Amino acid sequence: MGSQWGYDKTYLRAKHEGYRSRAAYKLMEIQKKFEIIRSDDNIVDLGAAPGSWMQVLRSLTDGKVVGIDLNPIALLEGCESLVGDLNDPEIQQEAVSLLGVVNVVVCDAAPKLSGHKAYDQARIIELNEQALKFACNVLKTGGNFAVKSFQGTDFPEFYADVKTHFHSVKTMNTKSSRKGSTELYVIAKNFYG
After folding, report:
1. Which one of 60, 118, 124, 177 has the largest count of C-beta atoms within 10 Å of its C-beta?
2. Between vectors from CA 118 to CA 44 and to CA 7, what angle results, nearest 5°?
3. Which pTM does this prediction carry?
4. What angle do helix axes 155-163 and 117-138 make, rounded to 10 degrees?
5. What percent of the chain has pLDDT over 70?
6. If one looks up domain 9-191 in CATH, what number appears?
7. Between the CA of residue 178 and those of 25, 99, 169, what are the distances in Å?
8. What is the pLDDT of residues 145-180, one digit of tens each?
9. Any idea which residues carry the catalytic annotation?
10. Is 118 exposed, middle or buried (0-12, 13-18, 19+ CB in 10 A)?
11. How many other CB atoms sit within 10 Å of the CB of residue 5?
12. Which of 113, 154, 147, 116 is nearest to 133 (CA)?
């Protein structure tokens, strides 16, 4: 658990409280405001490494939690993890077979940034679209979806696309995000199916 931005207060709090990264607090904020996770939900966490969202998810549900990432995720009690690409139909099928019903899909993934704003924005939106497609392939009707995105010229089109699949779609900036960050979360509830 480290950061190119150094050890700020949120990073130190996460380390002290046993979370694998500061991102844990972002999911807690989302849950507090939108209640996207119910106590018996089965959940897929996309881009799950290092596993801080899985740690929080495990505390929010008695259902099953599966994390998917290109990188291995250190073992977390009560969670399953799959190493692979979220676009791979076999990975999607394996997640569904582990969970049965999928109630919630969350994604805190972001590509490695190059520093070229337009290029990075396009890559982030592409990852968002892949996460949305995954969610639409596996979610049960009425399910929920939360994904990290970034403000930019391509964002409105992605946001409009999410609205075609879910009854309620909102955005949220979290207090746990780094100061000056353009990241925001899209919170989509009640999948049309």
Report:
1. 124
2. 60
3. 0.90
4. 10
5. 87
6. 3.40.50.150
7. 12, 33, 24
8. 999 999 889 999 999 999 999 999 999 998 866 666
9. 148
10. exposed
11. 12
12. 147
Domain spans in the chain, listed from the N-terminal domain onward: 9-191
Lookup: tokens for 7: 């050890």
Q: What is the DSSP string of 37-80?
A: --TT--EEEET-TT-HHHHHHHHH-SS-EEEEESS-----TTEE
Hey, what are 171's tokens? 């955005």
The neighbour count for residue 76, using CB atoms within 10 Å, is: 19
CA distances from 56 to 14, 27, 34, 150, 188 (A): 12, 7, 15, 23, 19
Contacts of 4 (CB under 8 A, 6+ apart): none
Closest CA to 91 of 50, 61, 47: 47
pLDDT in tens, 103-137: 999 999 988 878 888 888 899 999 999 999 999 99
